[in-house]
Amino acid sequence: MLKSLQGKTVIVTGASRGIGKGIALRFGEAGLNVVVVSRSQGDADKVAAEIGPNASGFAADVSTEEGCKAMVEAAVTRYGGVDVLCVNAGIFPAAKLGEMTAGDFDHVISTNLKSTFLGISAVLPAMTRAGSGRIIITSSITGPITGYPGWAHYGASKAGQLGFMRTAAIELAPKNITVNAVMPGNIMTEGLEGNGPEYIAAMEASVPLRRLGTPADIANAALFFASEEAAYITGQSIVVDGGQILPESLGALEAMG
Ligand SMILES: NC(=O)c1ccc[n+]([C@@H]2O[C@H](COP(=O)([O-])OP(=O)(O)OC[C@H]3O[C@@H](n4cnc5c(N)ncnc54)[C@H](OP(=O)(O)O)[C@@H]3O)[C@@H](O)[C@H]2O)c1
């Protein structure tokens, strides 16, 4: 049983659906004040209403400096500070090399990677004032460990987040701020559903635990990184993928029976 985080405040970006929503619900259940961030105020408000009176929505585009600063200001005004930042918002449009434009590349890098830098930069003054903080990044297995046709830009953004994290963790350690990452495998979200039923079925078949993950699976790992019990862990990442990266070949999966 982890010690209570009741009364602390978390900002979750990309929390109007999918993994971010799962994280927001889980942290809300654990008694934290939750700032639910997405570009749509209406969608963010809906998730906040689901969580309860300890949550509120905020509309921000996290690929912009103004958006990130505004979401932190809102958390400080509403709840008095920010204890935890979950940098989760991300997009994964597919485009193979030869078709991928410079604009596609910039869009993915700016939404997934630049937003990591901007969000962390924006929250630093509040966490520095408080003398502590927890930052949890939603990376991926795609990029840091694996590849998938169409996602060269996405993989670069997700591997980039981990590269960024390692130096950020060293720089922020003297301020008692930890920075860690969760690396999801294939998690059943609205975003993933967009890849179609064939993709989903193929993915299920390639996971040793024989199911896709749920947003709650990722949220539990994020909650651990936010806990007092994880105070001595920084600059680390945890793979939550049902064993997806383990089989060395299709033969290994078939041999499971
Ligand atoms: N699903 C998976 O299998 C999987 C696997 C590995 C890693 N991940 C990572 O997990 C994270 C969430 O993925 P998901 O599957 O939950 O995606 P999703 O269902 O498509 O949800 C994405 C969330 O991000 C928000 N968002 C997108 N662009 C934004 C922006 N510029 N500013 C603010 N919010 C923005 C969306 O809300 P609005 O559109 O309203 O802004 C939405 O709340 C991503 O970082 C992704 O790379 C997912």
From TrEMBL:
Belongs to the short-chain dehydrogenases/reductases (SDR) family. This is 3-oxoacyl-[acyl-carrier protein] reductase. One of its GO terms (molecular function) is oxidoreductase activity, acting on the CH-OH group of donors, NAD or NADP as acceptor. InterPro entries: NAD(P)-bd_dom_sf (IPR036291), SDR_fam (IPR002347). It comes from the Bacteria. Pfam families: adh_short_C2 (PF13561). GO terms for biological process: fatty acid elongation. NCBIfam families: PRK05653.2-2, PRK07231.1, PRK12826.1-4. Signal peptide: none annotated.
